[in-house]
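Final report, section 2: Outcomes. Of the targets proposed, Glycoside hydrolase family 25 protein is the one most frequently requested by collaborating groups, and we therefore present its record in full.
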Amino acid sequence: MGYIVDFSKWQNRVNYEELSKVCDLAILRVQDGSYVKDGLYEQHAKGCSQFAIPYGVYAFARFTSVKDAEKEAQDFYERANRVKQPLFYVVDVEVESMSDMRAGTNAFIRTLRNLGAKKVGIYIAHHLYHTFCLDLTKADFIWIPRYHLDGKTILKPKFPCDLHQYTERGRIKGIEGYVDLNRLNGKKKLAWFIAE
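The predicted structure is given below as C-alpha cells.
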C-alpha cells in the first residue's frame, strides 16, 4: 500500500508525477478560515488530477458563530470545487474559536451536505477530543492526529477513528521537506475513501 498524505502551501515543492508513484491518497488544504485561502490549493489539485492521485480536501475551522460556520463551509465548498469535485470534505477542528464548537461544527457539516457534499469528515485534535465533545455521528469518518516526539514511532490514538495522522515529519518521494503522513485505523478501507 502507498502513502496517505495531507499537504498545503507549506509543501511548495511537489513533483506530482513522482508523488503519484507512491501516494494512494492526498488530502489538500483549501483554506484557513474564510479569509485565508491556501495559495497552492489549486496548483496541488491540478497536479493531483493530472497524475491521477485521488484527493479529498480540508478546511481549518476558525468560525466564531453558527452563522460564521455556515459561511466558512460555503466558501470551502466553492473553493474546493474550482478544479474538480474532490472525493470528500473535512472540517479541521483544532482551535476553540467559539464557545460551542459542537454547534459550529454541526452547522459547518450541515451546510456542506446542503451544498451537495456526499462524504464529510471531522479532523479533531487529539487533546481536545473530550473538551469539544463534537457530535461525531454527523460525519462519515473521523480523522485524528497523534504523534510521537521522535516523528517516527507510531502512537495509536486513544479514541476511535478511521484515519490516524501519525507524523508531521514524514518524508515521501515527490515532496521536498517534511509532510504529514496518515494511516487507515478503522474499518473503512482505502477503496471507501477513493470511491466517487
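The longest strand covers residues 23-32.
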